[in-house]
Amino acid sequence: MLGVILEAVDLKKSFPVKGWFGKSKGAVSAVHDVSFSLEEQSTIGIVGESGCGKSTLARLLMRLIEPDHGEVRYRGENILALSGGKLQNIRKKIQMVFQNPYSSINPKLTILDNVAFSLWENGASKQEARRKAHYYLEAVGLPRSYATRYPTSLSGGQRQRVAIARALILEPEIIIADEAVSALDKSVQAQVLNLFQELKSEFSLSLVFISHDLNVVEYMSDEVMVMYLGKVVEKGSAAQIYEQPNHPYTKGLLNSVPSMEVGVSTLNNSPITGELPSPMNPPSGCRFRTRCPHARDQCESSYPPEIEVRTGQKVSCILYENDVREKILL
Length: 330
Ligand SMILES: Nc1ncnc2c1ncn2[C@@H]1O[C@H](COP(=O)(O)OP(=O)(O)OP(=O)(O)O)[C@@H](O)[C@H]1O
Ligand SMILES: [Mg+2]
Hints:
This is Glutathione import ATP-binding protein GsiA. Mean pLDDT is 91; it is low at 264-268. Helix content is 33%, strand content 24%. Helix 4 (111-121) crosses helix 5. It is globular, with a radius of gyration of 21 Å. The protein has helices at 54-61, 84-93, 101-104, 111-121, 126-139, 156-168, 186-202, 214-220, 238-243, 248-255, 297-301, 322-327; strands at residues 4-18, 24-39, 43-47, 69-74, 77-78, 94-97, 174-178, 206-210, 223-228, 231-237, 306-310, 313-316. The strands form two sheets. Strands 6-7-8-3-9-10-12-11 form an eight-stranded mixed β-sheet, sandwiched between helices. The chain has a four-stranded antiparallel β-sheet with strand order 2-1-4-5. Strand 7 (174-178), helix 7 (186-202) and strand 8 (206-210) form a beta-alpha-beta unit. It has a single domain (4-16, 26-327), classed as Rossmann fold (3-Layer(aba) Sandwich), CATH 3.40.50. The longest helix has 17 residues, at 186-202. The chain starts with a strand and ends with a helix. The chain has 330 residues and is of the alpha/beta class.
């Protein structure tokens, strides 16, 4: 039976901000009390505007950075408490694909050796690593003749395929894709998204799919989590989030999407207005309140608790607290 493969529990991360001469200017609250769970062989999409903490969350999940608070659990085990060989083994199970494949691809190595490299690093022989690299290049749809080429001769989409093969060769169970198609043309984006879907089923992968593009997230995800200024404002199944969004921010985001395919028909069609506040000085209480059409005094004093509005759909908004809900026409 399939179960939860990855869990974030109350993750928190702030970054100190330094001014002139290294003087502390405060801190950016990048990720604040973020929790979610990812079911095996499913995809969670993480969406939100630039700076809402998506990449910081990804880095926390990979343990590339340490949280100030909270846990990351892989099959129930807190990976933050692990070290040495055990941590190394779990690290292989969680691989990442970034927006910019240039950063992870070595221009001096052939395509084949770029893919084989991480296996050598992990102790495989050259021959074995290259044999597997051929296999994964084929799996991502690159012709065998590409193996001896160098990265500079590839298009953006082909480079992204190499980056995906590099992630796959370590035989991960989870792939975290952070804006993995954002730099690609629309037609190439569609091909790479389809590739992710195929690989997911072929290799029984679970995906964390991060994108600021709501259409991409809708296409890819089983579950969706919406973030705003480091906080989760709403989560639920993709159908719930796209067809029956609850949080004023989710509604505003969907109303800002140009595509008519997104289920916005029941909404009042008002996109988000106003400036994104500085993450160094986020609003007290609900962080969205300064841009929220429904904001009231109560939103200022405390952050709204997470309320389950439908089975599996949770929203952090005072509008959904029982006593207030009755008085407001949603
Ligand atoms: N190493 C760091 N030092 C200081 N601040 C940081 C650091 N990394 C991220 N931040 C800040 O944390 C906040 C969240 O950044 P993050 O990169 O996680 O957002 P994001 O949602 O991935 O944005 P984008 O959509 O632009 O990729 C931002 O305000 C960012 O400036
Ligand atoms: Mg990012």
